[in-house]
Amino acid sequence: MTSTEESTGPTEAEKVLIELRVNGVTRELITEPRRTLVDALRHDLRLTGTHVGCEHGVCGSCTVLVDGAPARSCLMFAVQAENHEITTVESLEESDGSLGDLQSCFSRNHGLQCGFCTPGFLMLAEGYLAENPAPTREEVREVVASNYCRCTGYQTIVDSIVECAELRRQGHDGGPGMCGHGSPTTEDTTTEEISR
Ligand code: FES
Ligand code: FES
């Protein structure tokens, strides 16, 4: 780093103390005003389940919920997220660390391959299903078009979301054996793989 770069970097005096409410927990951090929400989540709060792809609002891999609605966390500053409820992919797992119902449906329907895009799709789906718990397959196809996946071809992502919606309406939790494709095997995707 040159002396010029050092002189233009943020000083401690330029940083601000903010409170972020993430997954129901209030967290304090000292950050630059220009820090994006996704960087604050990943680097300051160590919630690395939220991924960063394009960093300019196109790919959707950084999707989180802001007050329940899907939002691109690369397009928000962390300071703008104060006084809002932020929900990340880490919230989806069960309290014992097992996969949540939506994650289980993605796993058993093969709704992911490399998994890089998956946290974004999960949060997109979570926010959407809260708004529309009985979507048609065509509606789900339109919703997932907002995020990029370079592996799956999308069909299995749609399958996963449609099935989760059906199971929730039936009152199932989507756990082992509930997604219509048998019980999970040792090859099934783990929470670690899905959310990080
Ligand atoms: S990283 Fe935010 S939309 Fe691509
Ligand atoms: S599973 Fe690889 S980019 Fe979507």
Structure description:
The protein is α+β, with helices and mostly antiparallel strands. It has two domains: 3-91, Beta-grasp domain (Ubiquitin-like (UB roll), Roll); 93-195, [2Fe-2S]-binding domain (DNA polymerase, domain 1). 33% of the residues lie in helices and 13% in strands. It contains seven helices and five strands; from the N terminus they run H-E-E-H-E-E-E-H-H-H-H-H. It has helices spanning 3-8, 37-44, 101-108, 118-131, 137-144, 155-170, 191-195, and strands at residues 16-22, 25-31, 63-66, 69-72, 85-87. The protein has a five-stranded mixed β-sheet with strand order 2-1-5-3-4, with helices on both faces. The model is unreliable at 1-5 and 179-196 (pLDDT under 50). Bound molecules: FE2/S2 (inorganic) cluster (2 copies). One FE2/S2 (inorganic) cluster is lined by residues 52-55, 57-62, 72, 74. Keywords: 2Fe-2S, Iron, Iron-sulfur, Metal-binding, Oxidoreductase. GO terms for molecular function: 2 iron, 2 sulfur cluster binding; metal ion binding; oxidoreductase activity. It comes from Gordonia namibiensis NBRC 108229. Residues 173-196 are annotated as: Disordered. Pathway: Alkaloid degradation; nicotine degradation.
